[in-house]
């Protein structure tokens, strides 16, 4: 992507785990070494994303010999405009306000998972209001996401949109074996029965509540003792009993303050998250040759996090995706952590309900339709936002992305994509009133 000050707000769009983080680090390099400007990188609301970004910065520095000094916003006491660096914050209004209190000058802004800043309601949230102030202060803004439609609907300041080309070794949704789960009490059993035959690394995404994640891991551990089950959530890494667990845990440090809950009869142990990252644990598992590993997770597996070892030689091979009925289509697509750039030629298997596959299929069609002609072009963002706001939505206050997606029309003239307006098949146009 060509970063340029001529476009104050640029958007970078690419498929899930197709290499967008590399573009973020290139942007940081451009800001620090090209413009002598600091850059604030806003991640989604998860400390695990900070750990991952700092690891990627170290790898980037080692590979390119380009230093990217970085600090976490909550650990910074002052702001020095004469020493450009990467400031890292998670995407909540408190941390962003912490950065603003430093009275920063001469800085650029990079928003990872930029669509997370757009909420479902017409009224701005605290985060959106703070982000608007931040974008107005920054000399340049780069938004990065795999699901750009909410930004196209809402953002009036956007100047250009670019699409990340998938690398040759990218394994996308079309390359995954899709296996429909049955409508039974425990549909995941179908996946695990196949997983026992195949071996590999499974990601089981189902529950958002931590106690439900622990309960699922406990029950599955009893049913499939040959599988090492790990619960990964905001608390850390919880490892359940397995024949190889004792020798594995000799290589990592435990959290001695962790006390198993009363319902955790299977005696899980918590790995000290300050001393052992997910990537180090997976590398240790790979080095010990454990054949069957399943990571049970929820919101932590919805965006941003890559389930790979430190040396990228151990990665997901299977994924169970059991979504709640209220989850946005964008969130479901972002949960496809099975997709990615792989050195080997893996056989990837995705297990989900028929309805979930239908949502993913529809969303990918929309993605292809609206991004196939993207490049460094000017979009009439104000016009898109104004037209979209006229569509009546079911609950008045809610902004229905799936509804709007069906009725946006674009025309393609050579390499340019232009917004035409609302389809004639759209429902009656009525102004949405903010109550």
Protein architecture, described:
With 435 residues, the chain is of the alpha/beta class. It has 2 domains: 9-165, Rossmann fold (3-Layer(aba) Sandwich); 170-364, Rossmann fold (3-Layer(aba) Sandwich). The protein contains 13 helices and 19 strands. Helix 4 (126-137) links the parallel strand 5 and strand 6.
Give a quick precis of the structure.
This protein is of the alpha/beta class and 435 residues long. It has helices at 20-34, 47-64, 93-100, 126-137, 149-154, 188-198, 210-223, 245-249, 278-288, 329-334, 354-371, 381-388, 401-405, and strands at residues 9-13, 38-43, 70-72, 86-90, 107-112, 141-145, 160-163, 170-171, 177-180, 200-205, 228-233, 236-239, 269-271, 292-297, 318-321, 340-341, 349-352, 408-413, 416-422.
Mean pLDDT metric: 81
The tally of domains stands at 2
Q: How would you sum up the global shape? A: globular
CATH class of the largest domain: Alpha Beta
Q: Got a strand count?
A: 19
Rg on CA atoms, Å: 22 Å
The strand order across the widest sheet is: 9-17-15-10-14-11-12-13
Structural class: alpha/beta
Unreliable segments (pLDDT under 50, ≥5 consecutive)?
373-379, 391-400, 414-419, 428-435
The largest sheet, given as strand count, sense and whether it forms a barrel, is: 8 strands, mixed
* Helix fraction bin: 25-40%
Total of helices:
13
Distance between the termini: 41 Å
User: In percent terms, what proportion of residues is strand?
Assistant: 15-25%
Secondary-structure arrangement, i.e. CATH architecture of the largest domain: 3-Layer(aba) Sandwich
CATH topology call of the largest domain? Rossmann fold
């Amino acid at each position: 992507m060509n970063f340029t000050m001529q476009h104050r707000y640029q958007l970078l769009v690419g498929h899930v785990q197709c290499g967008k983080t590399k573009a973020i680090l290139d942007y940081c390099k451009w800001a620090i070494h090209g413009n002598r400007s600091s850059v604030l990188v806003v991640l989604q609301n998860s400390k695990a994303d900070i750990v991952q970004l700092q690891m990627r910065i170290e790898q980037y520095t080692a590979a390119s010999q380009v230093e990217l000094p970085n600090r976490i916003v909550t650990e910074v006491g002052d702001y020095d405009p004469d020493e450009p660096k990467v400031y890292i914050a998670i995407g909540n209004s408190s941390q962003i306000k912490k950065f603003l209190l430093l009275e920063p000058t001469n800085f650029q802004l990079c928003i990872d998972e930029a669509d997370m800043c757009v909420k479902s309601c017409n009224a701005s949230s605290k985060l959106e209001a703070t982000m608007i102030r931040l974008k107005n202060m920054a000399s340049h803004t780069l938004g990065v996401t795999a699901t750009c439609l909410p930004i196209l609907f809402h953002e009036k300041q956007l100047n250009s949109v670019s699409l990340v080309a998938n690398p040759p070794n990218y394994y996308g949704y079309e390359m995954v074996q899709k296996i429909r789960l049955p409508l039974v009490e425990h549909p995941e059993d179908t996946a695990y029965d196949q997983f026992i035959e195949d071996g590999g690394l499974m990601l089981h995404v189902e529950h958002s509540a931590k106690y439900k994640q622990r309960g699922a891991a406990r029950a599955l551990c009893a049913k499939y003792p040959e599988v090492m089950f790990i619960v990964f959530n905001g608390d850390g890494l919880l490892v359940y009993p397995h024949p190889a667990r004792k020798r594995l845990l000799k290589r990592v440090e435990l959290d001695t303050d962790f006390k198993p809950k009363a319902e955790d009869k299977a005696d899980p142990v918590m790995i000290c998250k300050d001393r052992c990252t997910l990537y180090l644990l997976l590398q240790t598992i790979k080095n010990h040759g454990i054949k069957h590993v399943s990571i049970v997770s929820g919101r932590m597996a919805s965006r941003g996090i890559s389930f790979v070892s430190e040396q990228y030689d151990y990665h997901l091979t299977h994924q169970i995706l059991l979504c709640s009925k209220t989850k946005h289509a964008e969130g479901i697509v972002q949960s496809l952590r099975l997709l990615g750039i792989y050195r080997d030629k893996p056989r990837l298997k995705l297990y989900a309900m028929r309805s979930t596959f239908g949502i993913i299929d529809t969303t990918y069609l929309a993605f292809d339709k609206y991004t196939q002609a993207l490049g460094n072009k000017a979009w009439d963002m104000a016009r898109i936002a104004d037209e979209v706001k006229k569509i009546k939505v079911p609950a008045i206050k809610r902004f229905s992305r799936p509804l709007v997606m069906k009725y946006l029309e674009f025309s393609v003239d050579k390499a340019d994509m232009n917004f035409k307006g609302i389809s004639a098949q759209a429902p009656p146009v009525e102004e949405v009133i903010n109550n």
